[in-house]
Amino acid sequence: MSSRASEMLILVTLGGFLLFLTSCATAPQPASRPATATVPRPAPEPAPTVKTPPPTPSRSSVDSVPLPRAAAAPKVDPRAVAALEITEEGRMLLKDGRTDEAITVLERALHLNPGNGRACYYLAEAWLVKGNKRQAKSFNRLAGIHLQKDREWRARVDAQRRRIER
User: Would the pLDDT of 27 be above 50?
Assistant: First the structure.
């Protein structure tokens, strides 16, 4: 499996896990059971005086304490995950030589997530294949902005820029 496919699988899995966690945190509490009739028991004999622990909080005070949220897990934007999946589809179309279809799909991915640097990179690649260097340069610049923190992608964007400038 390629590293890109692994990344996509991890993102989708993480998204599902986060949805599960948020649904658990917001799930309604079960209703208390109705009181049932009990048989009276004789009162127990008084126990010797022993220091007793403080009383446990009542159910209502426990309910008022907020549940901790999964703050350690990063938020996953479902639109960003979908945009990455669509970007991969566009990349495959581009690889198969279906440039016009790839451009349409990659523009859809960019519409879902304007910060998707990978979609910008592949759009630059598609426009370069079509011979439109002005469009390719524009999308390459956007890819450079959005992917500047990723060393591997930054190297790809720089290499692409050099091909565009030839």
Answer: no
